[in-house]
Amino acid sequence: MHVLSMKDPNAPRVPIVEHPDVRRMLMEMRAMSEGIRALVYHAARLHSLAEYTEDEAEHQRASDRLEFLTPIVKAYPTDRGFEIATMAIQVLGGVGYCREYGVEQYCRDAKISSIYEGTNGVQALDLVGRKMTMKGGRLFMTFMTELSAFIDEATGHEALGGLAADLGAARDKVANIAMQFMQQAGTDPIFPVLSATPFLEALGHVIVSKLLLEQAHIAYAKQKALMAEKGVTDEEAFAKDNDDAAFYYNKKLTARFFIKNILPRVDAIAARIQTRDESCLKAIF
Ligand SMILES: Cc1cc2nc3c(=O)[nH]c(=O)nc-3n(C[C@H](O)[C@H](O)[C@H](O)COP(=O)(O)OP(=O)(O)OC[C@H]3O[C@@H](n4cnc5c(N)ncnc54)[C@H](O)[C@@H]3O)c2cc1C
Questions:
Q1: Is any ligand 1 atom within 6 A of the Cβ of residue 129?
Q2: Where are the alpha helices (DSSP H) in the chain?
Q3: Which sequence positions are flagged as catalytic?
């Protein structure tokens, strides 16, 4: 990788994938893509369970979970999809922008998904105004309880525990905002309405972090077993030499990248919501 080429006019030309900023964009695209795919598969599984199980209790559990997740599954991946498509243009520079290459068409096509079937703004209002309070807030509380159980267990993991701790801190931020929505619903109804879209995004980052971390746990165990079987100890060298090892190696790095680079957006969103700034309501358009 040519990290010094910026300062060295005589540095050799390299493929763009050698540039750290391009690698950052590719990794953001990969982490978001794998994360939103996991979220959609998770929702599809819940849908199948709710639809086909003959166990009434299981049907109810799956239905409730899907009910709560639906606005998030509609809005979070479609916003990220557009973000990924704009990054794809940026990765390719001017070639990406020009119509001949085709990436700009993906960007335009991706944009519609946050508009039709209910705009993402309306999905966010559905989350905050309806799903969070549904059944006396039970759907949301169940979601938080299950998330916390995962975090408690994952924090003890021998290699990935630190990522679970990061997730725990983000969980606390969204829980704190949700608590304020509930406590102040009667006295300050505009607060959740103004905060709905950023809140949905924050919750999406938390859910996707959990799903990617679950994948990383599986990958860690599989990679460890494979390395023991082959009698190797250098995971990076092994990953360059073995397709399965490369898959597990990348899964762990993808979860780490998402939690270290994208999950911190929750901090900014929480800070933004806490300002309770209402200048957009006062501005003249
Ligand atoms: C290519 C394309 C294909 C489509 N295909 C179909 C189809 O097959 N079937 C179908 O039924 N429809 C279809 N639609 C219509 C689509 O469902 C609507 O465009 C979509 O629901 C948004 O409604 P709208 O365009 O009237 O926007 P508006 O409702 O006018 O929204 C404009 C803005 O106002 C916000 N907004 C609106 N109401 C509220 C509110 N109460 N609170 C807060 N914010 C609000 C929105 O979030 C958005 O930012 C299609 C649209 C397009 C562009």
A1: no
A2: 20-52, 56-92, 94-97, 103-111, 120-126, 134-154, 161-183, 190-230, 235-241, 243-257, 265-275, 279-282
A3: 117
Residue 112 Cβ contacting ligand 1 at under 6 Å: yes
Alpha-carbon distance of 89 to 95, in angstroms, equals 8
pLDDT in tens, 34-65: 999 999 999 999 999 999 999 999 999 999 99
Contacts of 200 (CB under 8 A, 6+ apart): 71, 72, 75, 76, 120, 123, 124, 127, 128
Task: Answer whether residue 3 shows pLDDT above 60.
Answer: no
Pull the structure tokens for residue 282: 């006062």
Residue among 79, 122, 197 whose CB has most ligand 1 atoms within 8 A, to mutate: 122
Assess whether the C-beta atom of 133 lies below 6 angstroms from ligand 1.
no
Please name the residues in contact with 105: beta carbons below 8 A apart, sequence gap of 6 or more: 99
Q: Where are the domains of the chain?
A: 21-282
Query: Tens of pLDDT along 226-285?
Result: 999 999 999 999 999 999 999 999 999 999 999 999 999 999 999 999 999 999 999 999
Q: Which two tokens stand for residue 13?
A: 């030309």
Average pLDDT over residues 127-137: 95
Split at pLDDT 50, 70, 90, the class of 9 is confident
Instruction: Show the 3-state SS of 222-244.
Output: HHHHHHHHHCCCCHHHHHHHCHH
Kind and range of the H or E element at 130? none
| Rounded distance between C-alpha atoms, residue 192 and residue 276, angstroms | 10
Type and span of the H or E element at 185: none
Task: Give the other-Cβ count within 10 Å of 10's Cβ.
Answer: 5
CA torsion through residues 241, 92, 31, 257, sign: positive
